[in-house]
Amino acid sequence: MRRPTGVTWDQLRVGVLVLFAAAVLVVSVYKLGEAANLFTRRYTLYVFLSNARGVARGGSVTINGVVAGTVTDITFLPIGTDTTRNLKVELSIDQRLQDQVRADSRASVKSMGVLGDKVLDISSGTPRYGVLQANDTLRVRPTIDMDDVIGQTSVVVQDAVELTRDLKIISGGIVRGDGTMGQLVTNRSLYDRLTGTLVRMDALLARLDNPHGTVGRLIDDPTLYNNLTVAVAGLDSALAQVNNRQGTLGKLLYDDTLYSQLVGVAGSTDSVMHQLNDGQGTASRLLRDRQLYDQLTKAVATLNTVLADIKQNPRRYTRGLVRVF
User: Is the overall model pTM greater than 0.70, yes or no?
Assistant: First the structure.
């Protein structure tokens, strides 16, 4: 049997379907590559990190939050004293965005959302600084480690739990009537006493507010204020006179003449007291000699006896004093 040489409709339909599928595949690959920046020219930058914090190979690199490249490699550096350069991260950046990354740009590890994937975000630079070239090193901005934040949050939560427990204990004691606060809340008699005290205090304040009372007159009557003003003025005048060196008080305060005289009197008194204590003079002997004291006492007693006898018998002592010629 002779085979037909022409193309049948079924064969043509299958060929068209295959070509359409291939075209769809090509367009899809192109679109996916364009979305993933697979067909763009890239250049390489390096970042040194102490901790990758979830950044992995193939992870996204963003500039101001916009996807601009990927993480192509992460390698460990030899152990050294500089713990800020434990990891060397290689970045592949879209070359069309090279003008955005400059010497003052900083890289930081961020999360896409609260619990999202980690990305390496780069901040745009300023025109004052030059553009980073291929294989340059990008400086890193210090970031907050979420593990540290979660650890601190756990401590805060624990403190809040302990505070809640303490508040519960305190509130339980108040409800049971323990302590002053508990008594204030639960004791009716204490409330009644406080109410009575407030009533009496209100009555006392009402009496104090009476304008005819002493306190009321002190508050409302300006007479006391005026008298105090006059008294203060008089005191000020007296102080002015005291400060005047011509007056008696002024001289007592400022003139040293009286002080010098008092010093002289004190010196003379000290000399007299020294002579009295020396035991040489009459006065000193009167103070210290017991025999002289006894003789003077005896003489005074004899003299008193003679004077008494003269008063009683005056003729005995006046006989012969009067003569007639």
Answer: no
